[in-house]
Structures are given as C-alpha cells and as structure tokens.
Design brief:
Blueprint: H1 31-52, E1 56-58, H2 69-72, E2 76-88, E3 93-105, H3 112-121, E4 125-131, H4 133-137, E5 141-142, H5 148-168, E6 173-177, H6 185-199, E7 206-210, H7 218-225, H8 234-242, E8 248-252, E9 270-274, H9 286-297, E10 305-308, H10 318-338
Parallel strand pairs: 1-4, 3-5, 4-6, 6-7, 7-8, 8-9, 9-10
Antiparallel strand pairs: 2-3
C-alpha cells in the first residue's frame, strides 16, 4: 500500500553533465568513457533511491539528455544534424527539433543495455520511462508524413517494439510520458489514445502514462499562471484514459490548481499522486506529503494510490532531490501506519 515511485528524470552527477540544467551536454568527450559514466550514474541513482526509501525505482534517465530525443537518437528517418526550430506544446515555447526526412524505423533496441544494467542493480520493482507517441510528434519537425495521426501510429509501433524488449529484460513498469495530453485535449480522444493503445499492445508488465504541466521552466510557469484558479485539463482526458487499457495514470497534485476530485474520473486505474513539487527547492515535510495522500484518499481507495513526484527532477540539485524523495517515503510511511 502507498508504494512510492518517481515520475521521470533525476539529476545527473556533475561529472556526467552540467548540474541543474535541462538537456545539458555530456561532459565526457570519449564515447567509451561516456558509456561507462552513464552506467555508473545509473547504478548510483538507483542506490540513492533505495537509500531514500523509494519502493519502485527507476534508472532516472541517466543515459538520456532529453526525455524525447533520448529515444529518437537511435531511430532512422530523422535528421539530428540539421534541426529545425519550431513551436511545441501549441507554441508555448520553441525548441530545436530533429526533422523527419523519411520513414521512421528502429534497427535495434534503444535502451536495452541501460535497462539490463538497471535491472541488475536492484531487487526492487523497476520502472522505465519512454516518450509517448503524441508528445514525440509534437517534439519533432515532420517533413515526410504530413499527418500527425499517421506519424504517431508509426512511432507507437516502434515504442511497442522497444517496450516489449524492456519487459523481457525484467522491467516491471513501463511509463509513457505524455505532457501533450494537457495541450491537445481534443486529439486525445482520437489519435492520441489510439497511438497509446498501440504502444502498450501485448504488454503484460504494468503500464503507465504520465501527464503533467511540465518542468519548472519559465515558459511552463507562465502558462500555468494563465490557466486560472482551477486546472481542469484532466477533466477532458481522464474519462478517455479510464476507458483505455493503461494500468496507471501519473498526475501533478501538490502546489497545483488541479482539483483532487478529478481523480474520481479514473475509476479502476492506479493513480500516481504527485506529492513532490519539482518547481521549487523547498523540501516538503513528511506531513505535507501525507496531507496530499489524505486528500487523494477522499476520491480513490488506498490500494490504488502510489505517491510520486509531480514531474522529472533533473533541474534540481541532487541534495534537494533526494531530500525530497526521503520526505516522499516518510510521508507514505505515515499513511501506512495511519491506515
């Protein structure tokens, strides 16, 4: 009951990448040294989660610079050398994105070596994150397919192949990150959910989708400030997800304006309740975490609640991050004793 986990990225050691920077460049210049450094960072990240008391650990995305591009870097049909600056998340901000210049294909697993290494580091349940097909489509410049729905289904096929290999390596939870679900709500009920269903097709491990309002960067902070006193985007997407085959839904709760009552729309799904704010260095107390869980309990049974973080934590320092994770674990412990 109240198994704790993380939603996404965790900070990298300073010898791997510049700390507290999103999508920082790798510091080791030698490819062999870089690969060894990624594996070492993964092992340290898992150990730190265990020491913090996290029940379902992850690789912390230590081998990836970017949660989307880290997967796409090994996909054929993309041009990373001549990127195009485009507006993403409905033009909330601009990013230099790879171009789709031909049919996309995957010759071999992208993350298998890192997942296998992560699995060998722990006896706890292991989560691995992948970008969702809708968010991939929104984070690339398509110059080949000319249709978002078609492109999403192509990537869903590649993601499914990857997910099946990760499952075979012993990954317990595969999470698809879909921040685009809070932006293109009208498309979620169509090609958004269709591509997600294709991505999880045939999987027997636990499957999850992470929907949030993004990292604590200024563009996202400004956008949140324009959403009003209640953030009700989930109201449109949750009924669609409730009717889907996904097992878990991860959402942003603490310090957000999301009405907690909306999780009642996720009948039958496990709910990853974001009880750690990733947009501040302030460290939550265990009692504050417990309060978030108590509020969630008003709308979902205890066996379906998994305390988590609001989003990825790579922009934070490692000291702050793991102090927050210790608070997450302690808050869950309070609630286990209380229930």
């Amino acid at each position: 009951m109240f198994e704790t986990t993380v939603a996404g990225s965790l900070p990298k050691p300073s010898w791997l990448a510049e700390p507290e920077v999103l999508w920082a460049a790798w510091r080791p210049a030698d490819d062999d040294i870089l690969e060894e450094a990624k594996l070492d960072a993964t092992a340290l990240c898992i150990l730190a989660q265990e020491e913090a008391g996290i029940d379902i650990v992850s690789d912390g995305e230590q081998s990836r610079q970017h949660f989307v591009h880290g997967f796409l870097a090994a996909i054929d049909g993309l041009d990373f050398d001549n990127r195009k600056r485009i507006g993403i998340r409905d033009d909330r901000y601009e990013a230099d994105c790879p171009r789709v210049i031909g049919p996309v294909s995957r010759k071999q697993s992208v993350h298998a070596a890192y997942a296998k290494h992560a699995r060998a580091q722990t006896d706890r349940k292991l989560k691995f994150t992948l970008p969702g097909p809708m968010t991939i489509v929104d984070t690339i410049a398509d110059e080949h397919y000319g249709d978002r729905a078609t492109l999403a289904m192509e990537f869903a096929r590649l993601l499914n192949d990857e997910a099946r290999e990760l499952e075979a390596l012993g990954v317990d939870v595969i999470q698809f990150d879909e921040p685009a679900y809070n932006v293109y709500m009208s498309a979620v009920a169509g090609w958004g959910i269709d591509s997600l269903e294709r991505a999880i097709e045939g999987l027997s491990c636990t499957t999850a989708i992470h929907i949030c309002y993004g990292y604590g960067i200024q563009a996202n902070i400004d956008w949140k400030g324009a959403l009003g006193d209640e953030w009700r985007q989930y109201e449109e997407t949750f009924p669609v997800l409730a009717a889907s085959n996904i097992d878990q839904v991860s959402l942003e709760c603490i310090n957000s304006h999301v009405p907690m009552s909306l999780i009642g729309l996720l009948d039958g799904k496990d709910i990853l309740v974001g009880a750690i704010d990733v947009a501040t260095n302030r460290i939550e107390t265990p009692d504050q975490v417990a309060d978030v869980i108590r509020e969630a309990l008003k709308h979902a049974p205890a066996e379906r609640i998994f305390p988590s973080t609001n989003c990825g934590m790579v922009p934070l320092s490692r000291d702050v991050t793991y102090a927050k994770l210790r608070a997450l674990a302690a808050g869950a412990a309070i609630m286990r004793a209380e229930i």
